[in-house]
């Protein structure tokens, strides 16, 4: 069997201050798989994503990314593993307003040699990889513009290109469509998943909107994993 991209095993995590607790006996994602993670506000979606990314560490159990247990790594090794293998797509985009669209998309390749190499191998250069992704997402006309001059929906597509560049094994997308209307939400998710599928990148998509689940292969409910502390 091929190695899972992400695996959580016997995971238990509790915030000391609030008592909120998650228990995840088993969760894994294979290469290219798409999972829709749904749950009410306060159900622990961001907490779980932070555990998956190694930003939070569980009290028991472990998260493995590309077969490496995050608990066993130093903070700097964990950061390096994350930037090499995971693209992030957030509600607030986290784009750098003073940089051009192209420079924003290319950014992960500055921090990750692996993603730089993948981009060059795929497209000949990092710039070409960025241009190709922008093209696929309908944003090639804006490549040289500062991102601060773009609409919300356009910035969203730039953030998607940045998450996907250099063929990460996993994209974590946390409420990436919350600023869009329903029609544009579905269109954006389709574009994101199509690009991810082309490069065999797994995607975990978090949203309040259950209609977006139909675009993913699997659907997971946070309620499965809430333990005693959830009110
Ligand atoms: N740093 C923290 N310390 C203590 N408790 C926290 C902390 N962060 C979140 N919580 C609590 O953990 C629970 C889950 O929060 P989390 O942000 O993971 O939920 P969520 O599903 O992402 O919510 P939303 O959809 O509103 O963003 C909430 O009850 C919250 O109050």
From TrEMBL:
Database matches in PROSITE patterns: ABC_TRANSPORTER_2
Residue ranges of domain ABC transporter in the record: 6-231
Organism for this UniProt entry: Limnobacter thiooxidans
Keyword field contains Transport: yes
One Gene Ontology cellular component: plasma membrane
UniProt entry tagged with the keyword 4Fe-4S: no
Domain of life: Bacteria
Record protein name field: ABC transporter ATP-binding protein
CDD domains: ABC_MJ0796_LolCDE_FtsE
SUPFAM superfamilies with a match to the protein in the record: P-loop containing nucleoside triphosphate hydrolases
Entry keywords, A to Z: ATP-binding, Cell inner membrane, Cell membrane, Membrane, Nucleotide-binding, Transport
Matching Pfam families: ABC_tran (PF00005)
InterPro entries: AAA+_ATPase (IPR003593), ABC_transporter-like_ATP-bd (IPR003439), ABC_transpr_LolD-like (IPR015854), MacB-like_ATP-bd (IPR017911), P-loop_NTPase (IPR027417)
MF GO annotations: ATP binding; ATP hydrolysis activity; transmembrane transporter activity
Coiled-coil regions, chain positions: none
């Amino acid at each position: 069997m091929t190695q899972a991209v992400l695996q959580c095993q016997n995971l238990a995590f509790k915030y000391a201050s609030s008592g909120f607790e998650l228990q995840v006996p088993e969760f894994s994602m294979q290469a290219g798989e798409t999972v829709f993670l749904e749950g009410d506000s306060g159900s622990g979606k961001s907490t779980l994503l932070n555990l998956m990314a190694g930003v939070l560490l569980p009290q028991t159990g472990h998260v493995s990314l590309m077969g490496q247990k995050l608990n066993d790594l130093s903070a700097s090794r964990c950061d390096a593993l994350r930037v090499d293998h995971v693209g992030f797509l957030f509600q607030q985009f986290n784009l750098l307003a003073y940089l051009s669209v192209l420079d924003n998309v290319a950014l992960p390749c500055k921090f990750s040699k692996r993603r730089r190499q993948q981009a060059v191998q795929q497209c000949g250069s990092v710039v070409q990889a960025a241009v190709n992704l922008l093209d696929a997402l309908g944003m090639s006309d804006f490549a040289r513009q500062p991102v601060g001059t773009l609409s919300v929906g356009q910035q969203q597509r730039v953030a998607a290109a940045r998450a996907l560049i250099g063929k990460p094994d996993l994209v974590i997308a946390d409420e990436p469509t919350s600023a869009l209307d329903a029609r544009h939400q579905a269109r954006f998710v389709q574009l994101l998943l199509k690009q991810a599928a082309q490069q065999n990148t797994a995607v975990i998509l978090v949203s309040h909107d259950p209609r977006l689940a139909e675009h993913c292969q699997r659907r997971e409910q946070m309620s499965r994993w809430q333990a005693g502390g959830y009110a």
